Amino acid sequence: MPRYDQAQQVTLGRDFARALDPVLLARDCGLDPDPVQAGLLTTTSRKVLVNCCRQWGKSTTTGLIALHECLYVAPAMIVLVSPSQPQSTELFKKIHGFWERLPGAPEAHQESLTRMELANGSRIVSLPGSEKTTRGYSGATLVIMDEAARVPDELLAAVRPMLATTSGRFFALTTPAGKRGWFYEAWSRGEAWERVTVKGGECPRISSAFLEEERSALGPLRFSQEYECEFIDAETSVFATELIEQAMTDDFEPFIARAA
Ligand SMILES: Nc1ncnc2c1ncn2[C@@H]1O[C@H](COP(=O)(O)OP(=O)(O)OP(=O)(O)O)[C@@H](O)[C@H]1O
Ligand SMILES: [Mg+2]
Fold it and tell me: How many CA atoms lie within 13 A of 78 on its CB side?
């Protein structure tokens, strides 16, 4: 039997407690989860839909779930997927940041901007939103899909088989993007999903003054989508959902009026 000094016993004790309770892991990473976040961190559901307002903490909370899996369900295979590589990479960066902050976390064997492998054999990969790349991965113990309402049905079809042989868990996080697509269907009619939803007014970190500013800046329709978790009906809306989505991206040349 190895003998441990008092400091080692405290470290081991904390590690054991964190293994049993992901909320403690979150606190050790510098974040105190609110009650709904604590519920999500500790859920035992295999399929979870998270339809929460902007900035509630969707990426943060599921990033902590991923780190917990990496440390205590090793060797874990965690896949982060979203409509684009930059969005998946953002989630990966959050997890990487928590891992760096956690005292006593296992070393990384391999690390890059999009993936890492820990000494305990757990792996995290962040993928671009391409069906072809996604098909190359299998045996995931946890899949986290960010901006899930903007993920095309074909990409979901490529992701699902990754969980076939592992009974792995699947978390889909998003704000709504119209009454269409797989997430909307699953949210409104799907069976066997746990559903988590938090509106802006219910988030303890978002002030009512900020929400009022956002309401006047975004207009009522867009505000209800971003902060009230509402799926806007594409048929009654003046503009199609795709058009509204495109209008919110900034990857085009700014329009500058020419002098006459
Ligand atoms: N319990 C908490 N305590 C303190 N800060 C928190 C907590 N939860 C989340 N945050 C902070 O809130 C901010 C938003 O978190 P996060 O990016 O995870 O939200 P999100 O729901 O994914 O947002 P978006 O819809 O913009 O993608 C981050 O700065 C995060 O650190
Ligand atoms: Mg996010």
Answer: 32
Going 246 to 251 to 252 to 255, the CA torsion angle's sign is positive
Q: Is 59 in the pocket of ligand 1 (CB under 6 A)?
A: yes
Q: Whose CA is nearest to atom 23 of ligand 1?
A: 55
For the chain, the distance separating the N- and C-terminal CA atoms, rounded to the nearest angstrom, is 86
Domains assigned to the chain? 6-198 (3.40.50.300)
* 48-70 tens-digit pLDDT: 999 999 999 999 999 999 999 99
33 C-beta closer than 6 A to ligand 1: yes
pLDDT band at 8 (very low <50, low <70, confident <90, very high): confident
Q: Give me the residue label for tokens 């002030």.
A: 207
Question: In whole angstroms, what is the distance from residue 148 CA to residue 43 CA?
Answer: 19
259's CB contacts (< 8 A; 6+ apart) are none
Under DSSP, is residue 207 helix (H, G, I), strand (E, B) or coil? Answer: coil
Mutate to test the pocket of ligand 1, among 60, 90, 98, 207 (most ligand atoms within 8 A of CB): 60
pTM listed for this prediction: 0.89
